[in-house]
Amino acid sequence: MATPAARLPVRAALDRREAGVALRRVLGHDYRLGFLFVAPIILLVLALVAYPFGYAIYLSLTRKYVGVPPVWVGFDNYVKLTWDGFFQRAVVNSFIFTFGSVSVKLLLGMAMALVLTSQIRFRSFWTGVLLIPWVAPTVVSALNFLWIYDYSLGVLNYLLVRVFGLLPQGVGWLSEPGTAMASVIAVNIWRGFPFFGISFLAAMKAIPAELYEAAAVDGAGPVQRFWRVTLPGVKNITIIVVLLSTIWTFNDFQIVYILTKGGPGGATQVLPVLTYEIAFGAQRLGEAIAVALYMLPPLAVVIIVLARYMRRGQKA
Amino acid sequence: MNHGLGARLGHAASYGFLLVLLVVVLFPFYWMTVTALKSEEQMRSLASMFWPDPVVLDNFRHLLAQTDFVAWFKNSVLVAVASTFLATAIGTIGAYSLARLRFLGRAFMSSAVLITYLVPPSILFIPLYAQIRNLGLADSLAGLIAAYPSFTVPFVTWLLMGYFESIPEELEEAAMIDGATRFGAFARVVLPLAAPGVLAAGLYAFTQAWNEFLYALVFITNVKLRTLPVGLSSFITGDVYGWGFLMAGAVLTTLPVIAAYIYLQKYMVEGLTAGSVKG
């Protein structure tokens, strides 16, 4: 027979369990381990992304020089930038750089995936080698190309002039306004197309063989099978990869910075490099951040659309 | 007959295309290596352009003895290894939590992680620099180790969320019916199964940290504290002589990443396509 004194702890434990059940109902079944495990990420996102991001928006609305407190100026930085010739040129260049790179990467990547899904020997060897530019340090690759493009001793001019005789004399690939943009775009394509290829390859492998067989039975030729079976099968991944690459390319700093620093005469000046130069060359931080954030509205739209597609892809 | 010929032609075209891609992809690395092994006189004279004659190690000797390359290499190793461990640990438990556990705000956090992964560094580098300076970590390797998780953790988490979701939930449930706690089921059942994914995620985190340029360029002013990418790019002089040891440095900077990649290629290719962009 239980004495009241002995019953009390049991009652307390029961109460606690009931409270626990209620808590679980509100916070979710696994809330304790769940919160514990995401806590580091929450801290990290708040400290290293959310706070700096908010601070960036604030700074872009101020006049801020290094070492001097910011002065509130409202939208002045943005208004000034809108009419600034250098900025306008960088916006146009950023779009040319991004569109030129992404479109060729898309085509090359698609071709690479199509060839690798056909009856080919040593597929994993080809796949492995073709992915190397994607894993290699980008700065190293940019430096390699800086050396390859070199006017007097570069191997590209050597090949075109001395070996193949295609040109009467060398070209200053990175120092002439006419070729500089195409040259930096080429390096971005070289580095980025394997990611497209490998992503398309994975998506194509996931298309059931029966679909192709059924299409063949219905009399569809290779071209029709590509349009009717392959393309619909890789549609989602194409949207994801194109949007992802658009964000990365639009914000690519290192390739342009290493190869041309935006030159010659601003011919390859893109927004990230302009941001860096205004911030650490001219030391005008508020204006620099306004340059970085000017394209935020379209970027935010791209990010939100992309996040939707990626979440859906992961759940499928 | 005609059909066979067409197929064979298509086949030849496929191999031809792959071969062209192969040359384009590998040539810069070949050229970097050849340059690193050439003597200064050979480079100046444009003689035997595509093969070092004689093969000399002067560039490597100069690089290791006369420059800060060794210090930069150590800095890069320290920063990449430390931030990789940090990112993989935080990302693994976080991804498990977001993929499997049921709690309030899980969907919101999953979206937040993904959006964080998509926000480009070129928007964040100035305020992040201010933040690192506020923490007293400006111009230190600790500052980089603290900052790199801002891009490695979201990536690792995102990649592993997909991985954890592909592991059947029944396995954990069975372990828990046998008396394991939720944590026990995670540590003893799920984690071993996810090991290839964790390895791939860790490798990518390492590669990203090893290759990072913008933050290292902005946060570090002390020459001795530079990481390899920033150090190497400071060698650009426009002089012939500089190119020799710059390319020697490029070879030594590329080697660890490519070696790891060749050795663990299977995991990296699968990891990339399994988690980040499963369609």
Give a concise summary.
The complex is a heterodimer of chains A (316) and B (279). Chain A has 316 residues and is an all-alpha fold.
- Biggest interface: chains and residue counts? A-B, 106 and 101 residues
* Sequence stretches where pLDDT stays below 50 over 5 or more residues of chain B: 275-279
SS-derived structural category of chain A: mainly alpha
Annotation field: number of helices of chain B: 14
SSE succession of chain A: HHEEHHHHHHHHHHHHHH
Description:
- Chain A is mainly α and 316 residues long.
- Chain A folds into two domains: 4-60, no CATH class; 76-315, MetI-like (MetI-like fold, Orthogonal Bundle), CATH 1.10.3720.
- Chain A has 16 helices and two strands.
- In chain A, strands 1-2 form a two-stranded antiparallel sheet.
- In chain A, strand 1 (62-63) and strand 2 form a beta hairpin.
- The longest helix of chain A has 33 residues, at 85-117.
- The model of chain A has no long low-confidence stretch (mean pLDDT 88).
- Chain B starts with a helix and ends with a helix.
- Chain B has helices at residues 2-36, 40-45, 58-66, 69-100, 106-118, 121-134, 141-147, 149-165, 169-177, 182-211, 214-219, 228-233, 240-263, 265-276.
- Helices cover 79% and strands 0% of the residues of chain B.
- With 279 residues, chain B is mostly helical.
- The chains are: A mainly alpha (316), B mainly alpha (279).
- At the A-B interface, helix 2, helix 4, helix 5, helix 6 and helix 7 of A face helix 1, helix 4, helix 5, helix 6 and helix 8 of B.
